[in-house]
């Protein structure tokens, strides 16, 4: 799976998000910034992203995901 495809998938599923994606083999490094994360725990933020990627993980297209999930305010710090 290409970085652009993952970026489009995440950005279309999570409101007003901006995703940065780096791929190393079948490992994905993902940084997602969205106001939708406001007030959410770190676990809830990750669950929101995993919900988008679960089908790709299940098929093996994505093997492992390392993610950073931030609100715009957190990203600005």
TrEMBL record:
Question: What family does the entry list?
Answer: Belongs to the BolA/IbaG family.
**One biological-process term from Gene Ontology?**
iron-sulfur cluster assembly
What's the protein name? BolA/IbaG family iron-sulfur metabolism protein
Q: What residue ranges carry the coiled-coil annotation?
A: none
